[in-house]
Amino acid sequence: MKLNFSVKKLFVFALYLMVQTANSQKITYKNPEAPIESRVEDLLQRMTLKEKIALVTGDKIPKKGVIGSEGIPRLGVPGFKIEHGPYAFKGWFAGGEPKEMGTYFPVSIAQASTWDKALIEKVNATMAKEMKASGGQANAGPAMNIIRDPRGGRSFEYFTEDPYLNGEVAAAYTKGLQSERVMANLKHYLCNNQEYNRHRINIIADERTLREIYLPGFKKAIQKGGAWSVMGAYNKLNGVYSCENPFLLTKVLREDWGFKGFVLSDWAGTHSTAASANAGLDLEMPNERWYGKKLLKAVSKGEVSEETINKMTGNLLRGMFWSGAFDEKPSLDKSLLHSKKHLKVAREAAANGMVLLKNEENVLPFDLKKVKKIAVIGPNGNYGKHYNNGKFDPHLFQGGGSAFVNVKKNQIVTPFQGIKNNVPNGVKVTYLPGSYAESGCGVIPSKYLRTPSGKEGLLATYYNNNNANKKVVKTEIDKVISEEWIGEIDIPEAGNEKDDLSRFSVEWTGSLKAPETREYTFSIRNYSGAAKLYINDKLIASNKNGNWLDWNAMGSIVLEAGKSYSIKAQYAKTGGRADFRLSWDYENVAWLKKAVKLAKESDAVILTVGLSGHMGEREAGDRNHLRLFPAQEQLINKVAKANKNTAVTVIAGGAIDMRNWMDSVPSILMGWYPGEQGGNALADVLFGKVNPSAKLPITFPKSLDQYPSDFHTRGVESQYKEGIYVGYRYFDKYKKEPLFPFGHGLSYTTFKYKKIKVNSLKREVTVTIKNTGAYDGAEVIQLYVRDVKSSVDRPLKELKDFKKVFLKKGELKTVKFKLTDEAFAFWDDIQKSWKVESGDFEIMVGTSSSDIKLKTELYVD
Predict the structure, then answer these.
(1) For 809, which of 151, 232, 297, 603 is 20 to 30 Å away at the CA?
(2) Whether residues 404 and 453 fall in one domain
(3) Domain end position, chosen among 302, 336, 370
């Protein structure tokens, strides 16, 4: 039979593919059916030393879509791609540009507040689907450092203060993520418990403290969750940087826990070549500083062995093979992002993570059959002039830093929008800000400012440096005193673009006319530099070294109506980023009056207050207080007085000091940073569609005065003097009453704990619980353990298990707990091992660490 030319070509091509497939199957590392270890071993034998080192050296090239290692083209080794989570996909499409951000799920602390392992798995499996579609092999998360200090700027990214809960949540997160073969990357290993000075700080902690508080979560995420990668922290631990710490990276990870995955540094967290490689740091991120050529030289000098390089490369390859990086091509399916199915998961998680802190007189849920006028009041309720001078910025509803998700305005459902979306026809919903967001101050409108020559605004004079020899290079009139110079060395405003003007300075001068007689509060917000504000030559506010800990300096002065005052603001840039904003609180006067009037005219008020990713809750900085700013506290007290049917919703990522307003309001809901479906989720809870069941994963202190004065440091060393007494353990030991205890969270229904039984032989505990209220709902039964008589000092109680149980109204259930050695063990510093002492252990079950409902004893032999 004679084949035509086209058929011949098709036949030859098919034959070629068959041969190539057969050849690929002979090459073990290209065979997807071969065992992972065989593939790793085969590929290592084919790689040159230079190629191995290239693979373990980060190569941040966004245009190629790779944040990780670029790969080895000669052998067809793909680039290793890390998506930057931890609670939303941030990947690259179409030429590597970040065209789309993924679904913004509730932040990590909100997920932990659900105490629902199945839901946490579902959330992160959903997120992983989006990451996988883009070709992501790993997620830079979960972030899972213990929340030791409530001031920590990244508390919203972390889970909890408790090591047991930390491990259970991290394991669930890891299982969900890795169910789609996207690697979990556990960070920041270890003791990254404050952001200030994180690159230099040395944490001093004894081994028992590390083993009992800071390490268990990582251990469980690896051994129970199966995590494939770990990220080393910036800080030192007991004098050695985390990324070159053999105790952490070799002794604990590899030898004690049997970890088979790989370790990467935090971005620019590597501080050495040989010491890091020999300690167990497999991958330097984000690009070549200490590895690459330096690592190759270290091998040639005998400082690092080729065997070590093989281990490092093998650890990375093992994870890449597991993830399918060699065998699957990304679908680049953007339809997954913000899909209806994924938004449903985000909404469910947000609603189930909101903690009902207070609910006197059963104010919540609001009855929409009776409520016809709803006022949504507060700066965190919606976007507007009260925030960022009216410019859209997603930071209003999430923390800042590398976890920040730059979602679009039409993707975020604000509280106001969510309330409007979920009320029936005939219910009127009105929004007013009540005050400025964040500090309670906003940019001063130009109508109150005049230059020395009488023009609207202030005269800005730029200088080429910030020392005594500075020279004027440019002047201009600025109507809005709000400037940002981000990532720029040459400042066009300073004139000469050829000079290095990283030390430029600027001075604004003119006059300010007071619209009424009152005490005015002024704010200067600055970063990477020093700033001052003078009115009539009197220093009102000063910030010597603007950073995320001290970004905002404030001061007050009484001004008389109609009188003009000289005003001078100065800023001197000293670092890579520059930022200056001059603000005041005057607009709050009118906004507060309108808010009070609206509250009086409404049937119900939803007060939305909180923080933001700008004001302290962000990477690289910590909060210096736990309060809301005074303008928001005043707003709460005034509005609550005007309408008793008020519920406060706090939008923030950590503990809040509520002493100045908590008694004024009947109901408080901790909304956290709830993700892009937060507004709809809030409505679900406020109107009773979802019965709140979340519990606090941290202790809310009454104030920072309850902690030792040296608990947070601005120095370069922090001694963990409290040892194992972190969070509720600390409050128990020193008999301090918290504002809200660890594990606290109310429901619209009530539960009766009726009976507890133990079986010492089987180490089983059974608890009977009944829903005695009018609503179906879920309760988190928390089990705590205390060693009645111990040879060492131990906490008064430690969480060792929990179960979330759903009960219909009137339903009775018996719940069983099975305890292992882990529940009774402590770390023996002498024997360097875990130890269980025989004897009686008190078993406590309750609704929080402070509300124990039932007690019994279990004998451990």
Answers:
(1) 603
(2) no
(3) 336
Domain of residue 567, CATH code:
2.60.120.380
Within a domain: 563: yes
| Shared domain check, 549 and 480 | yes
- Nearest Cα neighbor of 440 from 555, 552, 584, 547 is 584
Catalytic residue among 59, 266, 478, 787: 266
Q: Of 695, 712, 735, which residue is a domain's last? A: 695
Which band of pLDDT confidence, cut at 50, 70 and 90, is reported for residue 297?
Answer: very high
Integer Cα distance of 433 and 632 in angstroms: 10
Residue 385, Cβ density class (10 Å: 0-12 exposed, 13-18 middle, ≥19 buried): middle
**Arithmetic mean of pLDDT, 55-68:** 81
Is 585 labeled as catalytic in the residue annotation?
Answer: no
Number of structural domains the chain divides into: 5
Residue 455: how many other CB atoms lie within 10 Å:
14
Q: Which CATH number covers residue 130?
A: 3.20.20.300
Reference 385, options 302, 346, 447, 441; nearest CA is: 441
CB 137 within 8 A of CB 319: yes
Judge whether 717 lies within some domain.
no
What H or E segment, with its residue span, contains residue 264? strand 262-265
Q: In 3D, which of 38, 18, 16, 14 has the Cα closest to residue 27? A: 38
CATH of the domain at 363: 3.40.50.1700
List Cβ neighbours of 300 (8 Å cut-off, separation of 6 or more): none
d(CA 116, CA 112): 8
Question: What would the pLDDT profile of 609-647 be if each residue is shown by its tens digit?
Answer: 999 998 879 998 899 899 999 999 999 999 999 999 999
Q: Is 720 within a domain?
A: no
Q: Which residue has the higher pLDDT, 497 or 316?
A: 316
pLDDT at position 3 is 46
pLDDT (tens digit, 9 = 90+) per residue, 70-93?
Answer: 899 999 999 999 988 899 988 765
- Mean pLDDT is lowest, of 98-112, 319-333, 475-489, 552-566, for 475-489
Comparing CA positions, the residue from 371, 427, 382, 377 lying closest to residue 595 is 377
Q: Report the Cα 23 to chain-centroid distance in Å.
A: 47
Q: Would strands 229-232 and 183-189 be described as parallel, antiparallel, or unpaired?
A: parallel
- Residue 14: pLDDT over 60: no
Tell me the residue range of the domain where 529 lies: 443-581
Cα dist. 758→526, 800, 841, 844, 860 in Å? Answer: 59, 15, 11, 11, 11
